[in-house]
Give the backbone structure.
Amino acid sequence: MPTRTATRKPRAPRKAKPPKDEPKDYVLRVERLVKVYPGPGNSPDIRAIDGIDLNVERGEIFGLLGPNGAGKTTTVGVCTTRVYPTSGHVQVDGVDVRKDPARVKLGIGVVTQFNTLDRLCTAWENLYFHCRYFEMSHREAKQRADELLQQFRLSERRKSFPDELSGGMAQRLQVARSIAHRPSVLFLDEPTAGLDPQSRIALWEIVSEMREHGITVVLTTHYMEEADQLCDRVAIIDHGKILVCDQPANLKKTLGAETVVHLHLEKPPDGLAGKLKRLSGVVSVDASSDGLRVLTKGGGIVLPKLVNAANKYGLTDVSVAEPTLETVFISLTGRELRE
């Protein structure tokens, strides 16, 4: 009797497993961070930071955007070991800021809101002695100081004292000094506050170049243009809380609007907001300092309708612009960023 040979069905090819996302290299980790200051006298305690969570990737420029008093400076103070947190955890390059603050300081650069240059030293000496403080040899410190003066376009002012420098030059020198020891993270707290527009733009260019030198930048600002121009990602902070965190373009897309129309009015807009909200193409209506701010979509079709409705309220001017990060802040908080 002939034997039957068993035949196996060919196995179906295994499906290739989708590649796993590589773990992100976070140079700064902030978890459940809280900082409470005791209130004066019998006043309630001040909760400057109220449970912040954020991660900053290596090599990015990350912005904390919010009004004065929002908790930006306190957050940076904890990250740079200058402020002791009430609770929570912060790691810079894997080092806990509470457990080993000295080691954290070796790997960070800090520029505060105040000028901390040594006024008895020249621009070159400010850089040289900083390098020596971080244990560079005389030759290495001298070379590094020369290199930084050239990089920050201050070579011609090498012998000038800080009081002889303009505000923009002094701020560039502070940034140069803060990276002299080649830190992995640079913290900039309101870096362009008080600078004229030209000096501000010059500093923006320098900050943008930090990536080329392998430096991660964390900056605080209340200038929405600054955050929009410089930052890869922005966290909007208010009352010690992170409201949103994403790329500037993505944050603006969440508004669902294409245009911001400012209606400047002489009379109080009683009842006008409700009328405008019923118009096709109107996304939202908020009060502004001298009228109404209307978010719209669908092109310019809705604009004549807005003007016609607002004429009865003493319309004095109309301005049209694209949505900004300040528009995002207003939609989240109901008030302007500078208030």
Observations:
- Confidence is low (pLDDT under 50) at residues 1-16.
- The first helix runs from residue 72 to 79.
- The chain has two domains: 26-251, 256-322.
- The chain is about 30% helix and 25% strand.
